[in-house]
Amino acid sequence: MDDRPAxxxxxxxxxxxxxxxxAFLDGYDLLNISVVLPFLSRYMHLSPEMQGILGTxxxxxxxAGGLAFGLLSDLRGRRTxxxxxxxxxxxxxxxxxxIESPWQLLALRILIGFGIGADIASGPALLSEVSPAASRGxxxxxxxxxxxxxxxxxxxxxxxxxxxxTAPEILWRIVLGAGAIPATIVIAMRSRLPESPIxxxxxxxxxxxRKYGDLVxxxxxxxxxxxxxWVGAGTTSxxxxxxxxxxxxxRGGYSAMLTAVLxxxxxxxxxxxxxxxxxxxxxxxPLITASLIALGASFWAVAAGYRTPALxxxxxAGMFMTFLSVSGxxxxxxxxxxxxxxxxxxxxxxxxNRIANFAFGALAPVLLYAGLLSQYLAWVGVFAIASGAAxxxxxxxxxxxxxxxxxxxxxxxxxx
Length: 416
Description:
Layout: H1 12-44, H2 48-76, H3 78-84, H4 86-96, H5 102-130, H6 136-163, H7 168-177, H8 180-189, H9 197-201, H10 205-209, H11 220-234, H12 237-240, H13 243-247, H14 253-282, H15 284-305, H16 311-332, H17 342-370, H18 373-394, H19 403-414
Helix pairs in contact: 1-2, 1-5, 1-6, 1-7, 1-8, 2-3, 2-5, 2-17, 3-5, 4-5, 4-8, 5-17, 6-7, 6-14, 6-16, 11-16, 11-17, 11-18, 14-15, 14-16, 15-16, 15-18, 17-18
């Protein structure tokens, strides 16, 4: 048994907040690049390809961060990983305010993504392991709501500065660099986090490392289920990262675009909140399945309504469904793997989400300028609907069940 002492126990709402603040940083970073891309494009003469790469570069970093810190979290503890990972975000965010070339920003965006991926692999695992079974979905969902809320704050900061007359060449530096402020606060507050009691109870690192073979033996179906949920949600970088670019094709200029983005991210926050409130009642698998299918329909609606007054409503539905589906993926990844390998498995599923986000998102500005965005969105809608169907086939219901009982049920299922 691991004999290191846990940190002083804090209340469960505080754990929800401290884990959720990591998701807040993810959401803040998710949108801050997109709301400043119009200015970066003008001052740095960015090609559509470079816009796509910069907008999705954090996803590349998230792949490595999720895998590396997922392993660290399993072997050395959730708390250890959560105290270390945001240092990457802090340093890179601060340096982003002083870049002079797109290549400098690209390197920093990858580093930011590394820290975010590390946090998503560790934080949800800890929260899931300290939450009671009856309300685990609610607590996980409330933590996740901090992600779209971070995006909303990013858009609100840009809107307030633009409305107050801040010069664009200063505005984009402040918006990018301001991510260091909440990162500093979160790092300081997380010293209060407890270690997962289940992680402590389940044995020494040597025992944990021997369980990794089970991911491709006993848990391959669950790995596919969690990954499909995340990959289906990964299509949504087209909405989350490049919504400002899509909306900017409408009339009204930068101010009107920011207003639209604020409305859309309010709907995104509402989608995450609804997911939190209904997840324990309707179940994870029905939530993921239905929301991914509805997300696919939203892609079709955006494709049909592109460059028409119907675009705003279609995007709003897409943003709502995006975060409704991700709330389920965020939760179920923490429930279908054993404690010994949970964070690495979470990191693997999340890394596939980052790959999907990068692949789908990086093409968006290129196809937008080529006049092919509507056709692209229609095919992405087909992919999202297929992901929902696959989740229904592969998944199992995990609501209101103790994690250790779930592990037993999955092991039995693996022998069928």
